């Protein structure tokens, strides 16, 4: 009899545990958090492939390296001065989604990001809008895939300091910044009405680049904005290739054993002005 009771209570215990697991699984996604899920069907998580196919610029091209990392980044580590009473004035760090341009578009060099006063970063910046962001070449695991530890100086990182500036809705910069952000973070379109997010940009004061041994190098804001990132160069090369391919139509009009003649038709509005043929 005692053995039968033991078996009965054992089965009952298993049923209770399974019931608890099923109950918890039903509430894994709270209704208040669905605004932060991507837009695609089934709420499957989207991936942000920021690796691209291009390589970083040489480590001596400090301004280009800074632009390269900013253009590839889709999030930054953002440091602010805490306003929490227990640690007031201490450095505080948060992960903030960011974008400097739409996906596969030309780099702007300006980091756009959304903040909400529900988060301590916005609360800190509302009192003192000075901040520093950190970006690493290993954000897309580039260094790891190439056998470079993220702490090595050869795994490039940049520290950009400046001030957070809230953008005025309806302006051209607001529209372009929002478009760039939504391109890289489509889930953000759910945030705005639910949690009162507002769009900001980083007004840069100083740029420090550490991409090799010997300590950081400082890049002026002017040199930074005048530099072309590696990603921009790759995009421009791709666009030029496409424009050249569509600029003329080669046709073989004679294909005998001793002679081959090719006629190249140049479109009237083509940028091509000279063609060199090598035999």
Structural description of this entry:
The chain is of the alpha+beta class and 279 residues long. It contains 8 helices and 9 strands. The strands form 2 sheets. Strands 1, 2, 3, 4, 5, 6 and 7 form a 7-stranded antiparallel sheet that branches. The radius of gyration is 27 Å and the shape is globular.
Average of the residue pLDDT scores = 77
> How many helical elements?
8
Rounded to the nearest angstrom, the radius of gyration is 27 Å
Shape: globular
Unreliable segments (pLDDT under 50, ≥5 consecutive)? 13-53, 229-256
Report the β-strand fraction as a percent range.
15-25%
Order of helices and strands: HHEEEHEHEHHEEHHEE
Q: Give me the count of strands.
A: 9
- Percent helix, as a range, is 25-40%
Distance between the termini: 99 Å
In this structure, how is the largest beta sheet organized? 7 strands, antiparallel
Structural class: alpha+beta
In short:
By secondary structure, the protein is α+β, with helices and mostly antiparallel strands. The protein has helices at residues 2-26, 62-72, 120-127, 142-145, 172-184, 191-195, 221-226, 230-245, and strands at 75-81, 91-97, 112-115, 130-136, 157-166, 198-210, 217-219, 248-255, 260-266.
């Amino acid at each position: 009899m005692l053995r039968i009771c033991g078996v009965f209570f054992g089965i009952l215990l298993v049923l209770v545990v399974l019931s608890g697991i099923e109950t918890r699984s039903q509430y894994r996604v709270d209704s208040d958090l669905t605004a932060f899920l991507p837009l695609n069907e089934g709420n499957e998580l989207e991936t942000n492939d920021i690796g691209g196919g291009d390589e970083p610029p040489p480590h001596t091209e400090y301004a280009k390296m800074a632009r390269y990392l900013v253009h590839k980044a889709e999030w930054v580590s953002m440091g602010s001065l805490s306003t929490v009473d227990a640690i007031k004035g201490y450095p505080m760090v948060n992960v903030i989604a960011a974008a400097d341009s739409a996906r596969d578009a030309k780099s702007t060099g300006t980091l756009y990001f959304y903040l909400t006063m529900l988060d301590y970063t916005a609360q800190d910046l509302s009192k003192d809008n000075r901040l520093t962001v950190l970006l690493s070449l290993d954000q897309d695991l580039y260094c790891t895939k190439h056998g470079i530890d993220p702490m090595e100086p050869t795994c490039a990182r940049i520290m950009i300091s400046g001030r957070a500036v809230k953008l005025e809705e309806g302006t051209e910069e607001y529209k372009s910044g929002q478009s760039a952000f939504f391109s890289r973070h489509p889930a953000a379109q759910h945030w705005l009405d639910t949690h009162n997010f507002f769009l900001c940009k980083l007004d840069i004061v100083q740029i420090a680049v550490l991409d090799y041994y010997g300590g950081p190098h400082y890049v002026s804001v002017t040199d930074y904005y005048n530099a072309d990132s590696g990603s921009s160069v790759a995009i421009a090369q791709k666009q030029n290739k496409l424009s050249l391919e569509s600029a003329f139509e080669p046709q073989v009009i004679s294909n005998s054993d001793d002679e081959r003649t090719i006629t190249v038709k140049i479109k009237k509005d083509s940028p091509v002005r000279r063609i060199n043929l090598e035999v």
